[in-house]
Amino acid sequence: MSTDTLTPDRIARLQDEVRALARERGAVVLAHNYQVPEVQDVADFVGDSLGLSREAAATDASAIVFCGVHFMAETAAILSPDKTVLIPDPDAGCSLAASITADQLRAWKAEHPGAVVVSYVNTTAEVKAETDYCCTSGNARAVIEAIPEDREILFCPDMFLGVWLERVTGRKLNLWLGECHVHAGIRPADIERWQAQAPDAELLVHPECGCASQCMAFANGRTHILSTEGMIRFARQSPKERFLVATETGILHRLTKEAPDKRFEAVSERAVCRYMKMITLEKLRDSLRDWKHVVTVDPQIAARARGAIERMIAIA
Ligand code: 13P
Ligand code: SF4
User: What gap in Å lies between CA 261 and CA 135, rounded to an integer?
Assistant: First the structure.
């Protein structure tokens, strides 16, 4: 039976199995805000990339089942070399992480000797091993601001996050021209249409969205560029009742759960990350039952990547 045809009873049974297996195996289940609802609902912790990294570093559990994409599980494995990290589907990749290789980054660094390398967490372990600071959308601004003003910065791989960082920090960055196909696919026309239909709504925009969409965001006072967890915090605290959301649609489940009296609408229903959706409740159960798929990182690469990730976790 595929996840699409899961009945409420079957979901409940699978979730019971997951909880029992996790308890028995001493595992903690972490899930990203873009995961399908039934996976989010059974997880011990749901959050953004930064929150999940912090949780992975802090947990006492001997194993972590990471319901997210591969680079996230890899980051957890680097942070916790003594723990077993499982991912329910090892093919859950990320088109943004695939947009730069370690060889490409080494060649770029050679063109800019002495520059500080800041990499988005959406990168492979090999790219992180060539990096000085990792960041997520939740702390990218603080990471850039922590670097002395006179240092040249190479920022990779998301150009739209980079353009936004240049705008909010006033710093000139050398940008790698990568993008996330899901966020780049949210078009200015989607935002315009919604702004016309819902002029009373607050607009929540992920910084991976294309820069034209971001510009629209800067043009009015009711628009907010936020990480996924930032969107949840904002909606919870805001006195407003209606929100348009420009990011992957999986976040609507968490938003609705955390602020049930408010109304959330996706700016684009097409904004679905097929990699995030590769993790299903059945694969999560199988992962715990059959102890697969173990995520490993070459110890030498992990040792070189760890400093950049720890710097990321330390910067709020
Ligand atoms: P967040 O860190 O904001 O959760 O974003 C992760 C991601 O992959 C965005 O596409
Ligand atoms: Fe990667 Fe984009 Fe999917 Fe996020 S939404 S995991 S950046 S492909």
Answer: 33
